[in-house]
TrEMBL record:
Cell wall formation. Catalyzes the addition of glutamate to the nucleotide precursor UDP-N-acetylmuramoyl-L-alanine (UMA). This is UDP-N-acetylmuramoylalanine--D-glutamate ligase. GO terms for biological process: cell division; cell wall organization; peptidoglycan biosynthetic process; regulation of cell shape. It is an enzyme of class 6 (ligase).
């Protein structure tokens, strides 16, 4: 799209919104800004950065009536909002930063690897980005992982990249139509964000938009939603922890395999837990799909350190291991973390549940958990959903209290696992703050 003189309203003024304002103004668009809850200080700082920027707040419908052609929305805003749906019905264009990038890269040589899924997407994005860099590609890692894609684009001043490795949330994919990634994956689908979608199928549909285009599909053969995302006439690579597919884990032999070839011992991969074997297989499939050599990839996989707050060992006291999985903010992530660990567990969970059903945790906790300690606003919902499946569930007023209680209950050889299955904002500034409180409490023991 030619953005010159287009009248565009950017809604939502976090990092993504600000990156859209900067990019679109650079492209010659007439840009205004909107936030439903625009604070005076925020408006002042935006006007200081962008000359003559008009800022709006209040009812979105009334702001859109000023004659905008395009509404560029931040990921936190759903296009199903009544005012936005009406704007679209009246011929208005609604898009987000990923669609803007997709249109900008059309016809250019930059390759795109796109990654989504309920769980593991940050790990896979980081691993794929690392592998691409180690193999000598000029690599941009951006999207939901931290750097807004348009900031990453502008930082390069028009210089093409060899590959963009993009972590994409369902929110970012809702209004992305032209991504056409060279290789893309949906790693898995489990309950998350059901306060935004009608049901799990609706959420899966948003994720599946990552496959718009002609590139290689990398799909999880063990996930029923992913299996049905296979598109006719497309190159598909399957990965699995349960079946012999293109890329699979022979869990009995403890080996990763692909195309009948032995790749590596699972024990040689620095990432903890069985779920990370699936993440490694997906990453290898994505990298090989853009032509990177297997021998080099396997060499570099073994030097990848993993991510903070994802099943990360904090320390050990009296034979009890403490593991921080504070980034496990939904049921699927917590279930994967528990399933991937082999020792008895005392689980610390709870926070803002986002409308999830916690009963899928019952199967992985059974016969593995000594106790579940609950914190945060949805503790009673989790207790209800887990009733009778673990020896005891105990409510704790604070995370430090939960760490103390877990330490008293655990035995030598056990794991105390912080994997909340919930968002953190009821008690903390974010999952990293929650992790720090956990680490501090461990150090106080």
């Amino acid at each position: 799209m030619n953005w010159q003189n287009k009248r565009i309203l950017v809604a939502g003024l976090g990092a993504t919104g600000v990156s859209m304002i900067a990019f679109l103004r650079q492209q010659g668009a007439q840009v205004a800004a909107y936030d439903a809850d625009l604070k005076t200080e925020r408006e002042a700082s935006l006007k200081q950065r962008f000359d003559n920027l008009i800022c709006y707040t209040g009812r979105l419908k009334e702001v859109l009536a000023h004659g905008f052609d395009i509404l560029a929305i931040s990921p936190g805003i759903s296009e199903r909002m009544h005012d936005i749906a009406e704007f679209k019905q009246n011929g208005g264009i609604v898009l987000g930063d990923i669609e803007i990038l997709a249109q900008t890269l059309q016809g250019k040589s930059d390759k795109i690897i796109a990654i989504t899924g309920s769980n593991g997407k940050t790990t896979v994005t980081s691993l794929v980005g690392y592998l691409c860099q180690q193999c000598g590609l000029d690599t941009i890692i951006a999207g939901n992982i931290g750097t807004p894609v348009l900031d990453a684009y502008m930082q390069r001043d028009g210089k093409p990249a060899d590959v963009w490795v993009l972590e994409l949330s369902s929110f970012q994919l809702e209004n992305t139509e032209h991504l056409n990634a060279d290789a893309a994956t949906v790693l898995n689908i489990s309950e998350d964000h059901l306060n935004r979608y009608d049901d799990l199928l609706d959420y899966a549909h948003a994720k599946a938009k990552i496959f718009r285009g002609q590139g290689v599909q990398v799909l999880n053969a063990d996930d029923v939603f992913c299996r049905v995302m296979k598109r006719a006439g497309r190159s598909v690579k399957w990965f699995s922890l349960e079946h012999r597919t293109d890329y699979w884990a022979d869990t009995q032999a403890g080996r990763l395999k692909a195309d009948g070839q032995d790749l590596a011992a699972m024990a040689d991969i620095p990432l903890q837990g069985l779920h990370n074997s699936a993440n490694v297989l997906a990453a290898l499939a994505l990298c090989e799909a853009i032509g990177l050599p297997r021998t080099e990839l396997l060499q570099y996989v073994q030097t990848f350190k993993g991510l903070p707050h994802r099943v990360e060992k904090v320390g050990e006291k009296n034979g009890i291991t403490f593991i921080d999985d504070s980034k496990g903010t939904n049921v699927g992530a917590t279930a994967a973390a528990i399933a991937g660990l082999q020792a008895p567990i005392v689980l610390i969970a709870g926070g803002q549940g986002k409308g999830q059903d916690f009963t899928p945790l019952r199967a992985v906790l059974q016969d593995k958990a000594r106790a579940v300690l609950l914190i945060g606003e949805d503790a009673s919902k989790i207790r209800h959903d887990l009733a009778g499946c673990v020896p005891e569930t105990i409510d704790c007023a604070t995370l430090p209290e939960a760490v103390q209680t877990a330490y008293q209950l655990a035995q030598s050889g056990d794991i105390v696992l912080l994997s909340p299955a919930c968002a953190s904002f009821d008690m903390f500034q974010g999952y990293a703050h929650r992790a720090q409180v956990f680490i501090d409490a461990f150090q106080q023991l």
